[in-house]
Amino acid sequence: MGTFLRRIAGALVLFQALGSAEPLPAYFRRDPITRRDLSVSKVSVELAALVSNTTTIVGPSDHRWDDAIERYSSFAVPHIELVVQPGLESDVSTIVKYCNQNSIEFITVNRGHALTTTVGNFKGIKIDMASLRDLTIQPDYKSAWLQGGSYGGPVIQKLWDQGYVATTGSCSCVGLLGPGLGGGHGRLEGQYGLVSDNFLNLNVVLADGSAIRVNETSHPDLWWAMQGAGHNFGIVTSFELKIHPRKVDTWHYHNYVWTGDKLEALFEQLNRFHGNGTTPVLMAVNFGDFVMNANVSTTEAVLSWSFVYAGPAADAEHLLEPFNKIGAVSEEAGDVPYPEIASIQGSGIDSPACIPGHRIVLGTASNQVYNITAERQVYNAFNTWAAQYPELAPWARATHDSYSNEAVKKVDPASTAFPQRDENFLLEIAVDLPKDSNQTDAALKLVDEIRGLWNAGQPDRKPVTYVNYAFGDESLDSMYGYEPWRLERLRELKKKYDPSNQFRFYNPIA
Ligand SMILES: Cc1cc2nc3c(=O)[nH]c(=O)nc-3n(C[C@H](O)[C@H](O)[C@H](O)COP(=O)(O)OP(=O)(O)OC[C@H]3O[C@@H](n4cnc5c(N)ncnc54)[C@H](O)[C@@H]3O)c2cc1C
Ligand SMILES: *[C@@H]1O[C@H](CO)[C@@H](O)[C@H](O)[C@H]1NC(C)=O
Ligand SMILES: *[C@@H]1O[C@H](CO)[C@@H](O)[C@H](O)[C@H]1NC(C)=O
Ligand SMILES: *[C@@H]1O[C@H](CO)[C@@H](O)[C@H](O)[C@H]1NC(C)=O
Ligand SMILES: *[C@@H]1O[C@H](CO)[C@@H](O)[C@H](O)[C@H]1NC(C)=O
Ligand SMILES: *[C@@H]1O[C@H](CO)[C@@H](O)[C@H](O)[C@H]1NC(C)=O
Ligand SMILES: *[C@@H]1O[C@H](CO)[C@@H](O)[C@H](O)[C@H]1NC(C)=O
């Protein structure tokens, strides 16, 4: 059995901070230094005695261990020594206080889809939110309370069945809060804003284990920070989210595959269609990939684009007319209830993109208008790299997320920590390294090159990193905003709410 990573220096400070809180059980009143050799099994036993009987504790020798530490991408893996799955929200406080008393690090994990390498710096206890997934629609049908382990698919389905929708990420497998604490992009943002724009209340466990309510009037400073930089500040055990009447029974989709010679025609139409941040609101999103498709070519990527519209086919196809004229090698269109749209776009719970077992090397950028010259360079560079590394080529994609975003732009940018309301498109270059591949350097080379081309294509603008697409090597201001007051304010709040920087494993501010 391993011993826990010690934070002796910080522990004494924490000890004092906690001293002023409720009286501690006698058990805790000891010098943490004497517990240097605390074993995993001892921690399991001690924690079990403190938490509710609905909490599950899984250690490395448990047959459930592999499932308990499974995560989406294994590129950068947190070193988990013990998994604790709180059965009640109040257990979260208990676990955090216990960790503090014993100088044990903790990390909140919900769906385990974090892509940033900064999670790889972690060693300690995983607080697994998977038992906290209740959803309760409020009597006025204007909001719902959700627990901190909620995730896309079931939330979308449950609300839809009752005639409602809410902002979530676009992938059914991804948590609500992983995305939401960093803003949260999804198919309803044109109509209703980011996930975080729809928060009404957050129940938060702070670094010292205290449980507080955060909203516009209760801890308004933290309320500001948790809408965009929330991963740095606390564990959300439950939250109240706005819900909206569902309005339509089906959404229209149209997926196209074009060959590379259509790139200029496509991007000219995309720029016209999206009009620098004026996309028709119901034209919820189009996701577009440069990706190898062996049915078409083994040497040149295709342009694979999927459009979805929150309404009937006729309205959507009227808007899509210019794309229909480009001349696709294959295309497919139809109308389905909203909960099925994720699968149509390759992001449903059973889609390969949602199933764990990836090893993702990633780079991201954002822009307002597509630079067609730069997109051609990206496409050519992608093909050149694919020819050089044919064994990796099928696993690479350059993705363009083009969301309608009217409601995102309506929110005053200064009113939340989310700094990127001026951006219109999210770009990602990713290589999903095969399990036993030793070609990390080749993947990084592609990522650096493509990210560089995207940024060079907007010479008058600074590089932008959506915090939830960060790989961990980007600058802080590219994630949290270039206006100096943003990081200053976030750092002040860190001092106030997390002085020993416990929440530092997800693109940390400090
Ligand atoms: C397949 C895929 C699709 C994606 N699609 C989208 C998308 O459509 N829109 C979008 O905006 N992003 C998207 N992302 C990025 C996504 O926002 C991040 O990867 C996010 O961190 C995933 O959250 P999780 O709960 O799944 O992952 P986890 O690894 O469980 O959580 C990520 C981090 O969030 C924090 N966290 C999670 N739960 C809580 C909580 N209850 N309280 C406090 N902190 C918490 C922790 O810091 C944790 O390290 C996608 C990622 C993947 C891999
Ligand atoms: C768990 O605890 C509750 C109340 O504390 C009790 O009612 C219940 O019987 C316990 N369940 C088990 C399985 O021990
Ligand atoms: C904000 O939290 C306070 C303290 O819990 C509460 O009294 C108030 O009703 C909350 N506001 C909203 C909008 O829920
Ligand atoms: C896009 O709109 C923004 C204002 O929202 C403006 O600053 C920018 O210059 C525009 N870009 C182009 C290429 O027109
Ligand atoms: C290639 O064609 C096969 C057979 O028609 C089809 O099943 C498969 O989905 C196609 N692959 C892609 C990437 O389009
Ligand atoms: C990867 O492994 C193969 C086969 O073992 C070897 O030939 C190759 O040189 C290795 N490449 C790198 C970049 O290490
Ligand atoms: C478009 O990208 C090219 C290549 O990086 C660059 O030279 C050019 O200045 C960019 N155009 C605009 C309008 O930013």
Automatic annotation (TrEMBL):
Residue ranges of domain FAD-binding PCMH-type in the record: 75-246
Task: Tell whether Oxidoreductase is among the UniProt keywords.
Answer: yes
Keywords in UniProt for this one?
FAD, Flavoprotein, Oxidoreductase, Signal
Point out the signal peptide segment: 1-21
- Matching Pfam families: BBE, FAD_binding_4
Query: Would the keyword Signal turn up in this protein's UniProt record?
Result: yes
Molecular-function GO term, any one: oxidoreductase activity
Gene3D superfamilies in alphabetical order: 3.30.465.10, 3.40.462.20, Uridine Diphospho-n-acetylenolpyruvylglucosamine Reductase, domain 2
Q: Which family does it belong to?
A: Belongs to the oxygen-dependent FAD-linked oxidoreductase family.
**Which protein, by its recorded name, is this?**
FAD binding domain-containing protein
